[in-house]
Amino acid sequence: MTADFLRLLTIVAVSGALAGPCFAQTTNLAGRPIRSVTYVPEAVLHPDDLARVQVLKPGGVLRLEDVGEAIDRLFATGLFDDVSVEAEAAGDGVAIRVVTEPVKFISGYTITGGIKQPPNRGEITSTTQIQVGARFREGDVTSAVERIHGLFDSNGLYQSEITPQVENDASGQQVFVTFHVKPGKRAKYEMPVIRGETKLSESSILRATGWRLPLIHWWRHVTDSRTQHGVQGIREKYQKDDRLTTQVELEKLEFDSQRRRVRPTVNITPGPKIRVKAVEAKVSGRVMKRYVPVFQEQAVDNDLLVEGARNLRDYFQSRGYYDVDVAFRTQPVVNDEQEIQYVISLGTRFRLVKLSIAGNKYFDEETIRARMFMAPASLLSRRGRYSEAFRKKDEENVGNLYRSNGFRDVKTTSLATREAQGESGRVSVVLNINEGPQWIVESVELEGVPDEERRKTFEQQLASLPGQPFAEVNMASDRAMILTWYFSSGYPRADLRAGWQKAEAPNRVRVVYRITEGPRHFVRGIITTGLKATSPKLVAKRIPLKPGDPLSSSDLQGIQRSFYDMGVFARVDTAIENPVGDARYKYALYNFEEANRYTVALGFGAQIARFGKPSSRNVSSPGGSTGFSPQLSLNVTRLNFRGLGHTVSLQGIYSSLQKRASLSYMAPRFRDVQGRNIIFALLYDQSLDVRTFASRRQEGSVQISQQLSKATTVLGRFAYRRVSVSDVVIPTLLVPQLVQPVRIGILSANLAQDRRNDASSPKRGMYNTADIGLAMKWFGSERSFMRVLLRNATYHQVKRNVVFARQTQFGWITPFAAPAGLTDAESVPLPERFFGGGADSLRAYPYNQAGPRDVGAPAVQGGPSSPPSGFPLGGNALLFNNLELRFPLLGANIGGVLFHDMGNVYRTITDVSIRVKQKDLKDFSYMNHAVGFGIRYRTPIGPVRGDIAYSINPPAYLGFSGTAEELLQCGPNRPDLPPACQPVRQRISRFQFFFSIGQTF
Asked: What is the pTM of this model?
């Protein structure tokens, strides 16, 4: 029933009431004063909206035309399905009663029940097509149920049950819809019905579908993606046979409810074999498939063939054949084959030897060339870059550059001069620019802005300013800026018309912006739905909007993003209730779907490289040996703990090199500050990746981080831990102060700046970190030292898929207040020292083999001296630099890397050196270099990588060839000692191999 029809009925009813016998016996109600106006139900409209649309007011006079206008205004608010006006005598006046039937709006919806993916909840949600904030209609719910059934049927869930439930809120104006889902059991495929002149056997077609497991011949479960992939698999099977025009149609899926089986019916029209070949020129099949779109579109028509000719022409012109001519001809079908011939006349091969620019006065040549595709021949491009398409594009780009700076009448043309020399030639191109006069803005007028302060705000941000060059692109920018302000300030119907006209002075224009603000909308209230485990107070804190604030869709979306950032919601819908009605006070709606609170991730990995666990038996190979280390990881996370948005996480790693377990508790938005998080953590770690000893760490920590910007985060951290070593294989280290457990209390600060475009495999950007820590007795620490670790990495995109990456790391530990009996350098516990070498730091060394080594110890108090063992000891300083050139190798997923690593770990900061030669077998304070090649295989979790490195100057050192017991029995180094006690010269291998996951940096 339309609003006009309801209005007509209501006017008739009111007229009858005013003239009926009940009222006409004593008086005529029309023309009487209105004593009272009552609305039933009350509070449907905001008081300000009611005052704006109210026509019938106490103290006024009752007129029929006012009744009609009152009804029109109420309907225009969009909040009513029906409006009727009742009048009765009240003394010498009349009492008005406005009876309305309010519209119901959808405040939210949810999907409940056990979902067997596919489909997932997101697919079901989008299938419903329910719009939060829209008017509620029963038919929309019925249609949503039908669509969900269709989605389930396409995924083999033919016996699903969907039960909708509609709940009204206390006011009765908002409804919440719940779809209760019981998916039932999933059906399986059975032998499809194949129709058409297939030209292939049914068995080969069936294998192409993938609907049945090979060898064991078990039918798979039905899913929509599997069905579509099956149809695509048939199509690809024919394409491999050069039948590019094959049509494969899935006619129907028949479901047998008794056997729970689905029989697909597929109709196949194979078409002839298509042979696309080049005539008069040699073109590889790879080039043809890349540039002739019939292979991608699986169709043959004249438009695609013309596009292929154009693409081939551009390809050959980019290779120097500037006069190439490409035409095609289609041969008739003969013996089930059709041949398409591209006739290519290459002509002379040219080089673009000169590119000149003439007529430019306003812009220098460098600025213009930066916007051009054409480029003369150089070392990197032997033929240069030239084609007719490039010429036209460069003319357009340079013209746009001038037009955006006020040269409205600019004209750009180009002239190519060819000079043939036998089978090759030279081309010179001149780009001619006729700049014309520069147009200047004389004045800018803002019409329709009543607020002077707002006008000044706009004027400060305008791109078109008096005295500046005039360009229509600047006008478009101004329009976008002004309308963005209005839309974000609650003016959804604001409009701006931009225009300009010539001024009296030559080449001067007057710019005029005519603004229609329209009504301003405000927040009437905030309605949240869908919350189950989450505390409503937590949600309310993240919604800064209050009743009476301007209603801005951009603000609503910004709040929506902040909810997603919490990580506890799978879906957050936001909308404005009654978006098309002219009520100016409207509800802002947020509908939440909470994410699964428990997530469990189990991972497997491995490392292959030269490393080894510490061994108390064998000390003859301090450099370690090539080994394989499998790794198992477990991560259990509890999101939204106690409904506060907090996260509890349990992580574990188990491998032959490391056993690690941690329990953390994270509270985001600490003290209600955006971007501030606090984390409490407990950690147990046992590492066996250093050949010299095994380390054990038991730690408790608290960390507060603050995000300063999208790229920059700072954090403060206090950690208290107990570190100990075991399986120490070097007798020199059997000093009580070095091997006894040590308590460390350390306060540290960290700054991280991440401007990479992709954290897992960056192509451009920068990554910086700075970590400074202080351990001292005031913090309960038994050792005192300051630790600094700095890192800088940059990424430059040399070409589209070629990246040059570099990284520099510098570390420094400054000990002080050493315990009695230890030097400052020795006072730093072994697990706290820097160790380096391996796939992620310095590939000149095996894992943790860089830096100082045990060179033996002199006799103490008349006892025997210990011979050198050559085991790594770590250091108090490090300096690493890595360079990588990353490039595609095979296809889209396999890449290659050329790298150069340099650096070392040093005993102290004063030992840092960039020398490249080792002085003697006790000198480790020089810089090692390695070059190598690596392969990266792209996966969803990051690149799997294998690197082989060649160490240019690996260190040599003195080691020991016996067991640990024999080493302990050796006395001072004398010629008469047993051969087992004699030092053995050893060297780090020149070749190192690493296999792991993730980029080096």
From this structure: 0.76
